Amino acid sequence: MGDAPKRRLPVVGSGAAGAAPSGGGAAPPGGGAAAPEKRKLPVLQSSGDDEGEDRPPWHWIALGTVAIFIAWLPLAGLVNTLLRKMIERTGDAGAEGSVRLAMVGLNVIAFALAGVAGGYLVGRFGGRAGRREAAASGAVVAALAWALALAEGAPAGALGWALLLVVVVTIGSAASYAGGSAGLRSRAAPGPPRSR
Q1: Reduced to 3 DSSP states, what percent helix, strand and coil does the chain have, rounded to the nearest 5?
Q2: What CA–CA distances, in Å, run from 5 to 1, 2, 12?
Q3: What's the rounded Cα separation, in Å, for the pair 87 and 42?
Q4: Can you tell me the distance from the alpha carbon of 177 to that of 29, in angstroms, rounded to the nearest whole number?
Q5: Whole-model pTM?
Q6: What separation in angstroms does the CA of 134 have from each of 53, 118, 161, 171, 186?
Q7: Cβ atoms of residues 34 and 21 within 8 Å
Q8: What Rg value do the Cα atoms of the chain yield, rounded?
Q9: What is the pLDDT of residues 139-170, one digit of tens each?
Q10: Average pLDDT over all residues of the chain
C-alpha cells in the first residue's frame, strides 16, 4: 500500500496553469490551461399534444369536479351578494317573490357557467378523457350541492328533493358536457400559422 503512487485531484476553480485536463490527456503545448471538456446533457422534449395522456380518464372526473367548485363558489358569492343588496333596497313584500325567482335563476346561471368552465378544462387538457368525463364531473358537483342543501334541511318534501336532484344533475352534466365538447374542439383545432 505504501508503494502505490499518490494521485492528486485537481482543485475546482483553482485555474492553475499547466494542470492536466480532467479527461486524462496532456496539457496543451505552450503551458496554457486546458479548456474544460464540454458535456452535453440529454434533453427531454415533449410535444405538448399529449399533456394529459399519463392520467387515466377517471382522474379527470375528480379534477373537473374541483375545477367546477373553484369556478362556482366565487360566482355564487357574487350573485348572492348582489341579490342581498337588492333585497335590502326593496322593502316591498310583493317584490320578494320576484327577487327569489331572480336568486334561483342567477344561481342556476352561475352553476352552469362553472360547469362549462370545468368541462372545458377536462375536454381541453384531459388526454383520453372527453365529454363523458366532463359530464360526470358536472353531475358529481350537482349531487354534492344537492346533498349539502339536503343536510341544511331546507323545507321540501321527498318528491321535491327527488325532482330537485334530477334538475340539478341535468343542468350540471349538460353544462359540463357542452364545456367538454368545446375543449375537445379547441384541442383538435390547428394552431395559428407560425411566422418565420
Answers
A1: 60, 0, 40
A2: 9, 8, 22
A3: 64
A4: 73
A5: 0.64
A6: 16, 7, 24, 13, 15
A7: yes
A8: 32
A9: 999 999 989 888 887 666 778 888 888 999 99
A10: 78
